[in-house]
Structures are given as C-alpha cells and as structure tokens.
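Troubleshooting: if your tokenizer reports a length mismatch, compare your output against this known-good record of 60 residues.
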Amino acid sequence: MVDAHPGEADSRSLRYRERLIFFALAFGIWPLVAVGVVGGYGFIVWMLQIAFGPPGPPSH
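Known-good structure output:
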C-alpha cells in the first residue's frame, strides 16, 4: 500500500518531538534555571552583606 501523503508521519513525529522539547524546557529546565539564578543572586547579596555589612547609612 502506498501512502497518499508521504512525509506526513515524519511531520507528525517532528511536531510531537517539538512539543515534547517545548514542555521539557517550559516546565522543567527553565524553572530550574530561574530558581538557580535567583538563588545565586541572593547568595551573592548575602555574602556581600556578611563581608561589608547591611546596606544603608553607617551606624555610629
């Protein structure tokens, strides 16, 4: 039997892979990257405050 639309299965497979990759990025990898970046920034600020004191005018 000959396919009426050759390549249709390939495009369906490609769409499935693209959706799978999108959902892996959107709900897996990028949230972890965002938490890591925000957590890293918070850690840097915390270490700077330990080394140089809290922000604001110097205390007497």
